[in-house]
Structure formats: structure tokens, C-alpha cells
């Protein structure tokens, strides 16, 4: 990637890594790593740049962000002195809607 700003270059690379692990149907480039849906479990779909419903990023280093954002969001763009950057990708997941359960009881094992 050709980008003079280390922070922006690292953000683009993180987004591309997210693309690689969340998209299917492009076997000539990579094997899909996305989980398959099953009864009661619907994993998040592919990551789409700029769409919050598909995932948000939290900066971990060089400065830990207390919140998540959608790329491209370059915020203050704190530059790392050693060129090291890391983000966590937070993805939406869903399960069966809770309904009709009956609480049977609990036991305290302490």
C-alpha cells in the first residue's frame, strides 16, 4: 500500500484483513474463514467498509480507544513512534430470541 501516513496505512491493512476473513466465494484468493449458520446461530456476515452494522473497530495501540468506530475513521490519528498499530474488530452476532423459558432454580456452589 502506498500511503505516507503510517496510521492510515495500518488502518487500511486492518480493514483488508477483515475483508479476507469475513468474505466467501473468492477461493482463488483465499479460503473462507467465516462460520456457517446453523439452527439458533447466525454468524455475522461479511465486513463492509463504512457500514456499522457489519462491524466496528477499536484502536488498541499506540493509544487505546475507549470506543469503537467504523472505518474509515481516522480520528486524531496518533502516530506510533515504532510504526506499530493494532485494532480489535467487534462483530455483531445474534441468537434465538428468548421466549417461553421457565426459570427452574439455581444452586450456589460457594
Automatic annotation (TrEMBL):
<dbReference type="Pfam" id="PF06834">
    <property type="entry name" value="TraU"/>
</dbReference>
<protein>
    <recommendedName>
        <fullName>TIGR03756 family integrating conjugative element protein</fullName>
    </recommendedName>
</protein>
<dbReference type="InterPro" id="IPR009649">
    <property type="entry name" value="TraU"/>
</dbReference>
